[in-house]
């Protein structure tokens, strides 16, 4: 047990809105043991920025962790040479060049097709009817699992996310996660003969070509699905909502005064879709007069770091003109999100400009409130919208 002070939270309130509690922790106990989560939380940006790079102490290798147990030993739960070897293997599928050459035009085609199907006279929910299927269809391309339905991609991603954040040990949550990983294994098995005959630039394709062991291939595909579906889905819907509720900011984006990439980066700072990453203490360590013992679990709270008053003035305010260079929404160390370039392309190059260009006078439907939740993973649960029908 670390010597960190204890800080109690109301789990339901923390899920509904973690930011007030995180602000208090940054001020009163920036490194705090939270009994309700069974972990010590690092809440200040500089502590996380430094600690995430110290892999010999803050290890991603967690043999008994939920992700390893439920999804297999993927590259996110490896450090050093083992991590870098698998990261380099998948690079041909997710590098900036791969995104530009292989995926961007297909992302755009999916966006246009989905928007074509939207009807302003219907009760459109932009999470359900665009962000969710768009993210899933793009992820099907990147993973190579084009034999899946987008509904399954989303459901299985959510089941795994819930499973690896199931720190209270709910057996029903674990059962849903196990069912999801079994479904993914079956989808991989179906695609193996197809990709062995016709290799492509998907994650499954490049890992098979490189001869990666099948257990690692399966684990890394599950990793890609667990994070690669919810982050773009939640960031697309969340950024649209943020702009619709801040019309002066939307005007800046629509005029071109602020680039769409900057808009997305500010949203990811303001409400980080992935708000936490766990680590295992690998050896005795001290930081800020808090001592840790080996095998303790710590949470690096990215969502808190991105609202750290030491780096962001008025951090609770959404401001697309803000300098976001200190944001660590995609991580800060060797585990910097490998899918960051694909995510930026999906959201900033395709989804946001296409939605606002094609849906004239896009606006919220006032009759239905927008709901948002989560702390380890945070996003909108719905986004009811309408817009002006085009003439002719």
UniProtKB/TrEMBL annotation:
Record keywords: Heme, Iron, Metal-binding, Monooxygenase, Oxidoreductase
Family: Belongs to the cytochrome P450 family.
Needed co-factor(s): heme
Superkingdom per UniProt: Bacteria
Species of the source: Bradyrhizobium aeschynomenes
Pfam families from the UniProt entry: p450
Record-linked InterPro entries: Cyt_P450 (IPR001128), Cyt_P450_B (IPR002397), Cyt_P450_CS (IPR017972), Cyt_P450_sf (IPR036396)
PANTHER family, alphabetized: CYTOCHROME P450 YJIB-RELATED, P450, PUTATIVE (EUROFUNG)-RELATED
Protein name: Cytochrome P450
Keyword Thylakoid tagged: no
């Amino acid at each position: 047990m670390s010597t960190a002070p204890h800080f109690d939270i109301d789990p339901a309130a923390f899920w509904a809105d973690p930011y007030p509690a995180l602000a208090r922790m940054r001020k009163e106990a920036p490194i705090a043991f939270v009994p309700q989560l069974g972990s010590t939380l690092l809440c200040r940006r500089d502590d996380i920025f430094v600690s995430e790079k110290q892999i010999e102490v803050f290890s991603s290798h967690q043999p008994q962790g939920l992700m390893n147990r439920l999804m297999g030993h993927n590259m996110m739960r490896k450090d050093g040479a083992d991590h870098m070897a698998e990261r380099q293997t998948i690079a041909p599928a997710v590098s900036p060049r791969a995104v530009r050459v292989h995926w961007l035009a297909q992302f755009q085609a999916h966006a246009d097709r989905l928007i074509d199907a939207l009807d302003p006279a219907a009760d459109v929910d932009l999470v359900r009817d665009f962000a969710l299927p768009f993210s899933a269809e793009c992820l099907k391309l990147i993973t190579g699992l084009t034999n899946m339905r987008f509904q399954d991609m989303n459901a299985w991603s959510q089941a795994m996310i819930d499973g690896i954040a199931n720190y209270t040990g709910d057996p029903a949550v674990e059962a849903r996660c196990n069912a999801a990983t079994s479904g993914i294994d079956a989808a991989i098995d179906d695609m193996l003969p197809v990709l062995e005959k016709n290799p492509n630039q998907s994650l499954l394709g490049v890992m098979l070509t490189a001869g990666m062991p099948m257990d690692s291939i399966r684990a890394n595909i599950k990793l890609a699905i667990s994070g690669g579906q919810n982050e773009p889905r939640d960031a697309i819907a969340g950024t649209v909502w943020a702009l619709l509720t801040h019309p002066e900011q939307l005007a800046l984006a629509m005029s071109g005064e602020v680039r769409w990439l900057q808009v997305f980066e500010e949203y990811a700072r303001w409400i980080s879709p992935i708000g936490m990453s766990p680590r295992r203490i690998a050896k005795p360590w001290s930081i800020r007069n808090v001592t840790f013992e080996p095998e303790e679990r710590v949470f690096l709270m990215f969502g808190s770091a991105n609202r750290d008053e030491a780096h962001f003035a008025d951090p609770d305010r959404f401001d697309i003109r803000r300098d976001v260079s200190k944001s660590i929404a995609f991580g800060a160390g060797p585990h910097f999100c490998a899918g960051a370039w694909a995510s930026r392309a999906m959201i900033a190059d395709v989804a946001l400009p296409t939605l606002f260009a094609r849906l004239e006078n896009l606006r919220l439907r006032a009759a239905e409130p927008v709901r948002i939740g989560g702390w380890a993973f945070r996003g909108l649960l719905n986004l009811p919208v309408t817009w002006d029908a085009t003439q002719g």
